[in-house]
Amino acid sequence: MRALVTGGAGFIGSHLVDALLARGWEVVALDNLFTGRRSNVAHLADEPRFRLVEGDVCDARLVEELTCGCDVVFHLAAVVGVTHVIANPLAAMRTNVLGTENVLAAAYRHRVRVCVASSSEVYGQSEQVPFVEDGPRVLGPTWIPRWSYATAKALDEHLCFAYRDQGLEVSVVRYFNAYGPRTDPQGYGSVVARFVNQALSAEPLTVLGDGQQTRSFTYVSDSVEGTILAGTMPAALGEVLNLGSEEEITIEHLALEVIALTGSRSRLTYVPYEAAYGADFAEPRRRAPDGSKARRLIGFEPRVSLRDGLRRTIEWFRG
Ligand code: UDP
């Protein structure tokens, strides 16, 4: 089997590349190295079944060329992370919508199956937690840049269904706060990376707001396992699937857990949202997936507990 992984030098993408290679696949990774890093795939330098192409998903000709001859395209390339999206919403929207359209169009022309990475962010501030795939999406006003990411990802999903109706074999996965080794050490993509870094440097852990907001942190190997199932199993065709741990935790609790597991002297400091992200900021108060659809259709079951996942992540950061 041959795969194209867009965003293949990124955090989740590079783990997906590893998992596909371990299963005997040939893999081409396309990455513009904006948040992806060569070091994430450096260990594959001598792997004949792997190739990294430095380029952009917005380059339609390149995407077309790389898609031709593949069995599956895993489309993970995107501008992600609240910090990046807020810093340049225009660039993020262009990449996240036009890039996806390029991938879907190329896959459609070459009759290649696609698995598109979406996000639990599409549920926005819905209060119907845990989130089911066919549940409501509640987004705030359009002048709050954060919601442009959810909107772009939702448009990606609409595009997937429009192409599905034309005959494309496509599946969508919604990730829930993936974390693990290779997350941006500066913490731009994940609060876990940020807290671990702060704890290891004995700095205060910056809890935003009152810390009572919740997330369901999903260890990257689980996110990857679900992605491969969604990209290959017939039951996932034409479906949207939540891929997330059902272990919901407050951010304050996460911070305390990181301090306990690192043995750090750090304390918590509570930072107002405005101080971190400016005035026009909003975020979901609670986020947790209902995992029953993914369990039923593709047998997806997250295996790594938060504590084990944090231990592994801390070990990687120490290294
Ligand atoms: N967060 C925090 N301190 C930080 C960064 C983030 O308390 O230094 C909180 C943030 O407000 C959110 C949660 O951690 O409630 C997860 O943030 P992240 O940026 O990792 O992902 P999100 O779920 O917001 O997309």
Strand order of the largest sheet: 3-2-1-4-5-6-11
Strand content: 15-25%
CATH topology of one domain, what is it called?
Rossmann fold
Helices, by number, come to 11
Bound small molecules, by name, code or SMILES, are:
uridine-5'-diphosphate
CATH superfamily of one domain: NAD(P)-binding Rossmann-like Domain
If you average the pLDDT, what whole number results? Answer: 97
Largest sheet: 7 strands, parallel
H-E order:
EHEEHEHHEHEEHEEEHEEHEHHH
What is the molecular shape?
globular
What are the segments in which pLDDT stays under 50 over at least 5 consecutive residues? Answer: none
This entry's quaternary arrangement is single chain
Name the helicity range. 40-55%
Can you give a write-up of this model?
The two termini are 33 Å apart. The mean pLDDT is 97. α5 (146-165) links the parallel β5 (113-119) and β6 (170-175). This protein has a domain at 2-179 and 218-245 and 289-298: 3-Layer(aba) Sandwich (Rossmann fold), CATH 3.40.50. It is globular and about 55 Å long. It has a 7-stranded parallel β-sheet with strand order 3-2-1-4-5-6-11, sandwiched between helices. Strands 7-10 form a two-stranded parallel ribbon. It has helices spanning 11-22, 60-67, 82-87, 89-110, 146-165, 191-200, 220-232, 251-262, 273-277, 292-298, 306-318; strands at residues 2-6, 26-31, 50-54, 72-75, 113-119, 170-175, 178-179, 205-208, 214-215, 218-219, 240-243, 249-250, 268-271. α1 (11-22) packs across α7 (220-232), α4 (89-110) packs parallel to α5 (146-165) and α8 (251-262) crosses α11 (306-318). It is of the alpha/beta class and 319 residues long. The chain binds uridine-5'-diphosphate. Residues 82, 121, 177, 190-191, 194, 206-208, 213, 215, 251, 283 line the site of uridine-5'-diphosphate.
